[in-house]
Amino acid sequence: MDVDLIVPMKRPSLGKSRLRGATAAERHAGLVLALAADTLAAVTSAARVRRVLVVAAEPAAVAELAELGVEIVAEPGDGGLNAALRHGESMLRADDPAAVIGAMQADLPALRAEDLTTALAEAAGRRAFVADRQGTGTTLLLSSPGGALGPRFGTGSARAHADSGAISLTAPVTSLRSDVDTPGDLEHACSLGVGKHTAALLGEPCISLG
């Protein structure tokens, strides 16, 4: 089945606080946008992804991402990540109540479209999630057709999603597990090969950033 994905985004100037210092302070917001742009470029080229909805705290600050073929809507208030995802879910459900809906992080600059496609195929319409490479966080959460997404992002989200009945996907989708929260994570992503936006901002070669 085709999947509609929600990608939440904080204000670029405030996002990814643990990455501060990975590049010059005045380039931090640009780095956050570059990570998102490479994530979305891979997502929109993946098979079985029908629609991508970016729920942004400050839509004007991420308007350039619309060039990648995504829709951008405003986050409702300051309810946090899970509230933003539920808002995006309600918008998508209004158009297609029976859809498979997913929530995806915006910090996967090494993402390969084929890894996302593999994860969607393994889920096969079941409520499921992909844990990050540390096994504690969640990079992708999927609903069943017409079922509730039930986002529980935050500390220990992988366990929280498993405890709520979501299936942990086991496919070796390394790039889909490699989200970037710290300079060490960014170095790991660079070792896999990041997309053109992140590579252009960091320079070549993209290594030893931790």
**Distance from first to last alpha carbon:** 39 Å
In DSSP terms, counting alpha (H) and pi (I) runs of 4 or more, how many helices? 7
The largest pleated sheet is described as: 7 strands, mixed
Please give the radius of gyration in angstroms. Answer: 16 Å
Query: What gross morphology would you assign?
Result: globular
Low-confidence stretches: none
- Helix percent reads 25-40%
**Helix/strand order, N-terminal first:** EHEEHEHEEHEHHH
Mean pLDDT: 93
Q: Please list the strands of the largest sheet in the order they lie side by side.
A: 3-2-1-4-6-5-7
Approximately how much beta-strand content do the residues carry? 15-25%
- Compute the number of strand runs: 7
The helix-and-strand class reads: alpha/beta
Can you walk through the features of this model?
- The protein is of the alpha/beta class and 210 residues long.
- 34% of the residues lie in helices and 17% in strands.
- It has helices spanning 28-44, 81-95, 113-123, 157-163, 174-177, 183-192, 196-202; strands spanning 3-9, 49-56, 71-74, 100-104, 128-131, 138-142, 167-168.
- It has a seven-stranded mixed sheet, with helices on both faces.
- Helix 1 (28-44) packs antiparallel against helix 7 (196-202).
- The longest helix has 17 residues, at 28-44.
- It is globular and about 45 Å long.
- The model has no long low-confidence stretch (mean pLDDT 93).
